[in-house]
Amino acid sequence: MTDTNRAVFEYKIGLLAPSQVGKSTLIASLLTEGQRMLTRETTVQLTAADGPTRKRISITDNMVNGAIKARMFRPQLMPGTSDPSWFRLLLEPRGRDLPIRFDILDYPGGWLEDGGDGSEHEQKWNECETFLADSSVLIVPIDSVLLMEAGAEHAPLLTSHLAVFQIKQVVLRWAKNRRERPGEPAMVIFCPVKCETYLSDSGSLQDQSTDLKHQVVDQFSEVLETIREAAPHASARYLPIDTYGCVELVSARWMPHPGAPGDVRLEPKYRVRPPGTIARKGLEDLITLLCRQLVDSARMQSEQTAAQRQATARHSRGYADLREGFFRDLWLKANGERSRRERVANTDQQRYLEAQETTKSLFDVLAALAERQNGPRLHHLS
Q1: pLDDT of residue 211
Q2: Where are the alpha helices (H) located in 46-108, listed in sequence order?
Q3: Measuring CA to CA, how many Å separate 290 from each of 100, 124, 138, 251, 379?
Q4: Per residue in 17-34, pLDDT tens?
Q5: Residue-wise pLDDT tens digits, 326-337
Q6: How far, CA to CA in Å, does 316 sit from each of 320, 351, 354?
Q7: Nearest one of 288, 350, 339 to 313, comparing CA atoms
Q8: Burial state string for 10-29 with b = 16 or more CB within 10 A and e = fewer than 16
Q9: Which of 83, 208, 310, 324 could link 198 by a cystine bridge, Cβ 3.0 to 4.6 Å?
Q10: pTM
């Protein structure tokens, strides 16, 4: 929390995924779907916090919608992220000056795989790692097509393509940081993306939800164990997400790709289901999960701030009202010290009342979010 005239609670959300998984698309979807859901179901709104965020989200959203309208979708043709960029989102009650800011860092997925390419990129990746380690929540997007379509021939390459070892190293550093801050949020969300073909509730004719979850738990078992050992208080969640909701896998072929594990890369091709309306199932649960976790943390911070300000206000008031003898009191009044103490006491009392109001507002936000029930896709892993 930044303690200025305007209370702003700031949280970092880290995304951990190699290239071509769709981190940028997921971030843009958080805003667009979050705006729709929160406006429809609560008195809370989610907005872009600055111009660069609005621009990046609009660019990504236009590319996705353009690809969908083309009726044949190939994710590998979507441009990847070439430099780190910030997405900043504000969550706040409508009509109240009480923002909670989510800072999300997007970066080239290849940096996770190789730790940066060259000295310049290595330094930038080190900065990304520091952000990830300091994040309140880690989201791990996982390519569900890669999990489900690897086949026996390429199964030995699956762990490498998922960058499991690299993810485990980042999670270990994150978990150690969370262990040293037990009063702060600590959650990892494993999010298979592009799940439209495998889950029947999204329009698919097959239901492979059990197999998908088993694959995630199996491939990331060591990451889960790292969380349990290094940060036992941290929670792990499983939440599959339909990135688009209106596409269906047509083919997934392993194509030559020098530099990739085994020098091959899986390239899926989708068709668009009529009428081509985007419907991202699972994303509303992700938004709700993030909001509840971070708003609850903001509430606890606000309660602590209110308690501290109450103690300060009581001390200031006691000092202002303290009587020190007839002649001393006359002197304090004459030189303005008594008036100064009174002003300080009034200011401290006002700051305490403002902190109380902030805490009440956060309770109201939590109550609004609590009204929404979790969907059946969300599961606890710890």
Answers
A1: 96
A2: 51-69
A3: 11, 27, 10, 34, 14
A4: 998 898 888 988 888 888
A5: 989 899 899 999
A6: 6, 12, 16
A7: 350
A8: ebbbbbbbbbbbbbbbbbbb
A9: 208
A10: 0.88
